[in-house]
Amino acid sequence: MAGRRRWSTEQILDAAAELLLAGDAETFSVRKLAAALGTDSSSLYRHFRNKTELLRAVADRILLSAMEGYRPEGDWKQRLTAVALRLRAAFGRQPQLAAVWGRHGSGGTGSRLMMEEVLQALRASGLPDDRIPAHYHRLVVLIASLVTAEGGFGAVGAQEHEQGMEQFRVAVLGADPERFPALAHFAREIRPLGADRDAAFEEILAVHLAHIETALR
């Protein structure tokens, strides 16, 4: 025990991120993390009070990387779009961690940087201060939902993806036209959930920003 290595907070977070990439937040545990580091759980609890606090710290590092080097440019819509795309790209590089953010959130520096810029951009739009919190909440819920959904698609392996595509083809192209007339009619135009994710993300975000712009009038 005397020769057991001491791990820094950053090293613990590195190991936690690696463990989450191989599994998910449900199967993740402080005990498994301690075993991967060759230590005992009590040593990790000196850095984090519980599993949720640790997961929030892992998610916050993704937010921090997303906001690294960010400089506000353009009008308020361009700024909000830039933040959303940065979050999408950051979690796209580690898709298994998107669900961690969607479920556990974050309260660290990365989260505060993201929140500050979104609030500043909404202020720049001309919205009255008393209406900004509600619009902020809806916008962040939308972005988190889109990022989490994309993370789910991105974490799927090649074999699982092909199985899903086959199930999609059977469900859609094989639909009984008498029971599912609309589905049978549009079957060859319907796309799987994971298709055209780039365009879908930006279009859904643009529609919401247009809604905010309408509120300004």
What would a concise description of this structure say?
The protein is mainly alpha-helical and 217 residues long.
Overview of this protein structure:
- This protein is mainly α.
- Helix content is 69%, strand content 0%.
- Helix 1 (9-22) packs across helix 2 (30-37).
- The radius of gyration is 21 Å and the shape is flat.
- It starts with 8 loop residues before the first helix and ends with a helix.
- The model has no long low-confidence stretch (mean pLDDT 87).
In terms of topology, how is this protein built?
Elements: H1 9-22, H2 30-37, H3 41-44, H4 51-67, H5 76-93, H6 98-104, H7 109-124, H8 132-154, H9 158-173, H10 181-186, H11 197-216
Helix pairs in contact: 1-2, 1-4, 4-5, 4-6, 4-7, 5-7, 5-8, 5-11, 6-8, 7-8, 8-11
What is the CA-CA span between the terminal residues?
67 Å
Q: Count every beta strand, where a strand is a DSSP E run of 2 or more residues.
A: 0
pLDDT < 50 stretches: none
Structural class: mainly alpha
Q: Count every helix, treating DSSP H or I runs of 4 or more residues as helices.
A: 11
Give average pLDDT, whole number: 87
- Specify the overall morphology: flat
Q: Would you list the SSEs in sequence order as H and E? A: HHHHHHHHHHH
Largest sheet: none
Q: Determine the strand fraction and express it as a percent band.
A: under 5%
Q: Helical proportion?
A: 55-70%
Radius of gyration in whole Å, from Cα?
A: 21 Å
